[in-house]
Amino acid sequence: MKNLLNLTLIFTMLLMSSCSSDDSDSTQEPTAISYKIDFTTELSDADSNFEISVITTNDNGGYSYDVNSYSNVDAYSVITGSHTSVSNNIMGVKFDFISGGNFLSNNGMTVTRTDTNETLGSYLESTESLAAPGGSLQYSTLTIWFDANDNSFSTDFE
Fold it and tell me: How far apart are the C-alpha atoms of 138 and 157, rounded to whole Å?
């Protein structure tokens, strides 16, 4: 019986020592990284109203929008902008042509990781232009999405 008690005590001590951990040695990967998102578009003529939104995601998978509104911009202008934000893996730029008789073309975005200054990718949509809803062109909204997991782009037209 004494040997059984000693074995039980030794087994319990081994079990307890293997369960202890020292969290000071563990490292956690960051869930969100800071990115610089640049966008560009070209306006065909002056009479127009449109918005360009930079979209980022948070830890809960929710979206945040930084909306830039434009009205009666000079004809044939190239509009550029930049937004730096912490985001999880998915981010995008939404080009939304609201009203006017003209169109947006050559809509693009570039994503740069700010901690390394590494450009992760660039995308330019030059085949489809955007015009006001109900106008002469098929689409009024374009969202360019970037997935930082595999450095890939995708597009959604509406």
Answer: 9
